[in-house]
UniProtKB/TrEMBL annotation:
PROSITE patterns: GNAT, ZF_PHD_2. CDD domains: NAT_SF (cd04301). It comes from the Eukaryota. The keyword rRNA-binding does not apply. Keywords: Acyltransferase, Metal-binding, Transferase, Zinc, Zinc-finger. This is Acyl-CoA N-acyltransferase with RING/FYVE/PHD-type zinc finger domain. GO terms for molecular function: acyltransferase activity, transferring groups other than amino-acyl groups; transcription corepressor activity; zinc ion binding. It comes from Zea mays. SUPFAM superfamilies: Acyl-CoA N-acyltransferases (Nat), FYVE/PHD zinc finger.
Length: 320
């Protein structure tokens, strides 16, 4: 589970003054009913430190390990250790696990670039190659605990504007997709993604998503949800265009602009789940390739890539 730890303010701030997020012991006790890698049921191995569940084959195991077993999310990404100390009142220890804002050791440039785009979009949208259509990057914002009374009014006004834009983006997705209700939480999956709903369960932790959209005359017409895992991979699980603006190349334009942006910061590939009726568009028209099961399993063990039953995971190499 992730949180903004404000109890150890001095110890938990990085060089930029922002609050580091520290992994806590998970409060959810009920184990998940589907595998966090392939999103399917069956005989599952439960993590001993969080509710995540996995098929043995999906995490490369032949049999159930003896003793405690921890999933990748509950192990340090450097040493692989799973001992956890979440009491930071006296500062960090060698068992404190902190979260990277973009989930990869080499992601500083990626994170700063995306944050800059989100900040720029509040002031102005970025022009695209199509006249009158601009690109916006949005994300739900979280403030440090040091916001003062003198600046709170400004943040409140910005929050209202940001929330309105995110609601408009969600409205586009609701127009494009049937209702997507997550069985475990009984919540709107699209809203959870757009508003960065967090969870101690690996597959339902949607922190880190950005909303990218095309605007025409101040209206969002095409929207995608983007999450970037350092410079290794970016995912685009949801993308849709309002009915009135379809068959005008807006989806292609959005993907092209995203690819350009991701190449600028060195992201190597873009992945997405394709429904059967749109698979030819993604592969034949937009240059994606269907992934093999082994490729999907290898990627999903390391990164919490969002996928849906009945879809085909596709990828496109951005940098050789």
């Amino acid at each position: 589970m992730r949180r903004d730890d404000v109890g150890a303010a001095a110890a938990n701030r990085n060089r930029n003054g922002s609050v580091m997020r520290v992994k806590e012991k998970c409060s959810e006790e009920e184990g998940d009913s589907v595998c966090s890698v392939c999103i399917d049921g069956g005989e599952l191995l439960l993590c001993d430190k969080c509710p995540s569940a996995f098929h043995h084959a999906c995490v490369g195991l032949q049999a159930t390990p003896e003793g405690d077993w921890c999933c990748p999310l509950c192990r340090c990404g450097v040493c692989g250790g799973s001992d956890l100390d979440d009491d930071t009142a006296e500062g960090f220890t060698d068992k404190t696990i902190i979260y990277c804002e973009q989930c990869d050791p080499e992601c500083g440039e990626v994170f700063q670039h995306l944050q800059g785009l989100a900040a720029s979009s509040r002031a102005r949208s970025i022009p695209t190659t199509v006249e009158g259509v601009s690109l916006s990057t949005l994300r739900r914002r979280r403030y440090m605990s040091t916001v003062t009374r003198s600046t709170r009014w400004q943040h409140e006004e910005e929050d209202v504007a940001d929330h309105g834009q995110l609601c408009a983006a969600l409205d586009v997705l609701h127009e494009c997709f049937d209702d997507m209700v997550e069985p475990r939480t009984q919540t709107d999956l699209a809203a959870d993604i757009v508003f960065n709903q967090e969870s101690g369960l690996r597959r339902l932790n949607f922190r880190g998503y950005y909303v990218v959209g095309l605007e025409r005359a101040g209206e969002l017409i095409t929207v995608g949800t983007l999450r970037v895992f350092g410079n290794q991979v970016a995912e685009l699980p949801l993308v849709g265009t309002r009915f009135a603006h379809r068959r005008q190349g807006m989806c292609r334009l959005l993907v092209t602009e995203l690819e350009k942006m991701l190449r600028q910061v060195g992201v190597r590939r873009l992945v997405l789940p394709a429904v059967p009726e749109l698979l030819p568009m993604w592969t034949a028209s937009l240059g994606f390739h269907a992934m093999t099961r082994s490729d999907v399993m290898e990627m999903a063990v390391e990164h919490a890539i969002l996928s849906f039953k009945g879809t085909t995971m596709c990828q496109k190499t951005l940098l050789a």
